[in-house]
Amino acid sequence: MKVKTILVSQPEPKVENSPYSRLIEKEKVKVDFRPFIHVEGVEAKNVRQQKIDLNNFTAIILTSRNSVDHFFRIADEMRFKVPDSMKYFCQSEAVAYYLQKYVVYRKRKIYVGKRTFNELIPLIKKYKDEKFLLPSSDSLKPIVPELLDELGVNWTRGIFYKTVISDLSDLRNVYYDILVFFSPSGIESLMKNFPDFEQNDTRIAVFGNSTVKAATSAGLRIDIQAPTPETPSMTMALQKYITSVNK
Asked: pLDDT class for 105, splitting at 50, 70, 90?
C-alpha cells in the first residue's frame, strides 16, 4: 500500500530544511509531528526528599538538554548559586552547546564526550576524586549507573524530571499510513492511549533496539527499522521504504 501520511511521535524539528522537510518535498507525503510523551519537572521539595544537597557536589554529569534545564531550574528554586568552580561533564557536543544557555562557556570547566555515555566515561575517570551529581529523569538507561559504579566514582543520582504520557485522545479517529517511534515510552503511550489499537494496514517504524523490543512485546508488526548500516537515520529508512511502495 502506498504511503501518503506519516505521524512522528516527537516534536517538530525547529531547524529549517530538516531531513523531514526534504522527505516531504521529494516523496510528496504529509508528515505530522506529535509528542507521545513529555517531560515534567520534579519540585524542589521532592529533590530535597531524595536527600540531595547541591552544596555537596563538585561536578555535574549532563546527558541531555532536559538534564541541563532541570538542573538549573532546581538550583534556582533552591536558591543555590552554582559556583564557577563547578565541573560539567556533557555526554555530547549538543548538550555542551546547550549549556551555554546558562553559563559563560569560556569561564567554566566543561568536558565533552563524543555521543554515547560510554564515550564520556574516560573523561570522568580522569577526575575520579570529584563528587558527581547526575540529574536525570525517572527512567534511566541501565548502562549509566552500571558504568559509573564500575568506575568506582562518588556519584549520586537525582530525579529532577519525569517522563509523562501525553493525552492523545484527539487522535482516536485519525488514521496514518506510518507511525514513527523513537523510544519504548512512545510505544507505551500508544498502548495506554489506545488499548484497543489494531495495527491492520498501519506501518510501524521504530528507531533503536529498545524501541524494537517494546514494539514487539506490545504485539506490533515492525515494518521499518533504523538504524541499520544502509539506513543510519530514521528519515533514510522512511525514504527507502516509501520509494519502494510508492512506485
From this structure: confident
CATH code, domain with 28: 3.40.50.10090
pLDDT at 34: 96
Q: Which domain holds residue 184?
A: 5-36+168-245
Note the pTM of the prediction, 2 decimals. Answer: 0.78
131-136 and 5-8 strand pairing: unpaired
CB 3 within 8 A of CB 241: yes
**One-letter amino acid for residue 227 of the chain:** P
How many structural domains does the chain have? 2
Closest CA to 134 of 110, 113, 111, 158: 158
Query: Residue 134 contacts by C-beta under 8 Å, 6 or more apart in sequence?
Result: 60, 61, 63, 67, 144, 148, 155, 156, 157, 158
Q: Are 140 and 68 in contact (CB under 8 A)?
A: no
Sort residue 16 into left (φ over 0), alpha (ψ -120 to 50) or beta: beta
Say which DSSP state 199 is in: -
pLDDT, tens digit (0-9, with 9 covering 90-100), for 200-215:
999 999 999 999 999 9
Question: In this structure, are 60 and 146 located in the same domain?
Answer: yes
Amino acid at 134: L
Count the Cβ atoms, other than its own, within 10 Å of residue 135.
28
Among 133, 163, 193, the domain boundary falls at 163
